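User: Is it possible to get a 3D structure for a protein together with its bound compound? The compound here is NDP. I've pasted both below.
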Amino acid sequence: MSAIIMDGKALGLKIRESVKVQSTALKEKGIMPCLAVVLVGDDPASMSYVKSKDKALGEAGMESRDIRLPEDTSEDQLLSIIAELNRDDKVHGILVQSPVPKHINEEKINDAVAPHKDVDCFHPDSVGNMILGRPGFLPCTPHGVLMLLREYNIPISGSHAVIVGRSNIVGKPLANLLIRREYNATVTLCHTGTKDLARYTLQADIIIAAAGKPNLIKPDMIKERAAVIDVGINRVEDSSAQKGYRLCGDVDPAVAQKAGFFTPVPGGVGPMTIAMLLQNVADAAKK
Ligand code: NDP
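Assistant: Yes, that's possible. Here is the predicted structure of the complex:
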C-alpha cells in the first residue's frame, strides 16, 4: 500500500485564502499589510523565490516592497536600507533573501532587522522567544511542517521524530518546536557527524529530511508506515527538462511505497513555507 500524499499545495492555498480575509479586514481599518523583500545580487534561485513571494503577496491582497540591489552592495549600504525599513511604519515585515553575497555578514544582517518585523524568525530575539515558548513569530518552514502534520492528523505526542539536518532555519527550530509540550514528541537530531543515519531513521515514527542531499533517505532507511516529510529542494541536472535541471527532495520517491504519509517535492513543504510567511506578515500588520 503506498503512502497518503500530504498535499502542501492544497493546505497552503487554504491558509493563503484565510490570510486574504485577514488582509481585507486590515485594509478596512486602513492598514495595508506590507512585506519588504530585499534581494542582493542576481542568483537565479533567489530571484525565482522572490518572484513567487511577490506573486503570493499580491494574491493575498498585500503589498510587496521589492528592493533589488546590485551584487556589489556593501554591508553598510544594506544595513542602512534595513534601518530605513525598520523606521518605516508602512512596512510590517522585512525579509532579506538568503544567501547574501559572501562579502556581507549574514548574521549582522539578521541581527539588524527589528524583531517586530522579523517575519522570517531569524533574529536572535525571535529565536530565543521561540525556544522559550514566548509569543512571537514562528519560523516559516518549521511552522509549515507542523501545520501539515496536524492537517493529516499524524500523532505527534509520544512519537519519535527524527530530523536530518541541524540548520538554524529548519532542523534546529523544528526540534525545539516538536519538544514543546503542545507537540510532545521525542526528538533525535541527526547531522553529518551522525554515525549510521539509518540506525536512527529506522526508529522514527516521523522523519523530517532537511539535509539538502538529493534522495538521501531510501526505503530501507524507514520503518513501515512512517510519516516522511521532505523539506529538501535540490536542483539536479536533467538534460530532458526544459531548464536543464529538475527539482528533487532529500527523500527517494520510492519511499512513498513504504511510508504511511509522504510529502512530494515540489508541492509538499515548499508551498507551506510561503503560506506561513504570509500569515506572519498578516500577524505583524495586526500588531
Ligand atoms: P543547510 O545546508 O544549512 O543544512 C543542512 C543540514 O543537513 C546540516 O545540518 C548538515 O549537517 C545536514 N546534512 C547534510 N548532509 C547530511 C547527511 N548525509 N547526513 C546527515 N545530515 C546531513 O540546509 P538548509 O537547512 O538550509 O536546507 C536543507 C534543505 O531544505 C535544502 O535542500 C534546502 O533547499 C531546503 N529548504 C527548503 C525549504 C522549503 O520551503 N521547502 C526552506 C528551507 C530550505 P552538518 O550541520 O553537520 O553540516
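The first helix runs from residue 8 to 28. DSSP finds nine helices and eleven strands in the chain.
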